[in-house]
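Homework help board

Subject: predicted structure for assignment chain

Our instructor gave us this sequence and asked us to write out the predicted structure in token form, then describe one feature. I got the tokens but I'm not sure how to describe them. Can anyone check?
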Amino acid sequence: MEPQLLHSVADSVATVVVHHPAKRNAMTAAMWRALPPLLDALAADPAVGALVLTGAGGTFCAGADISTLRGFAEEGRRLAVEAEEALAAFPRPTLAAVRGHCVGGGAQLAAACDLRFAGQGALFGVTPAKLGIVYPASATRRLVSLVGPATAKYLLFSGELIDAGRALRTGLVDEVLPDDELDKRVAEFTRVLVSRSRLTQAAAKEFADGRTDRDAHWDAQARDSDEAAEGIAAFLERRPPRFTWTSAG
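My token output:
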């Protein structure tokens, strides 16, 4: 099978799989280009309430496939940034399910997700210093927001890999599971996500990402929706809520 991004939608969860096992799921130029339009299509699907990004087999993503970018380093950097920003802008909750190596461009993609769950055997690294590449400003800011300046500098200056335990302690990942329990936990948690109010999630995502100028917009969205009425009624009636708001707003 050619290197590609596989995707599926089941039970309101979209799953995108980085598939290039011959090179530990390294992203080719074509794969970087394919990610933004794929995300746009999934965002336009009202059935999608959350998205999981993962890698085929036992590896998340070993970065960029340098062989497809030789002589085009600047283009490769641009493609990676465009893919990262498209993933960060996805309007529903996103979760990276990480096994094995999550390195370079792979770490860039994982950091662009809202949440990261990792298997105990996962290894993380931000490796541009090994290649003489300037890590993008957007990706650097995103990394600093997750782990703080000191750990971001450790990762960027050294290019060293850290294990899942250290990634958890520094805030790079949110949960660490035994490798054979990762899929079960991701499925369990995404079921929770898609059962919650998309209105609440969409507003919270923007606010958490710094869009504090949108208070009035989200107040209007809340007034025009029945989300709060349904949530309160469900609580009082001791039943699961049936939220219906679907706009990306």
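Reply (TA_rk): Your tokens look well-formed. For the description, you could write something like this. The two ends are 38 Å apart (CA to CA). That's the kind of observation they're looking for.
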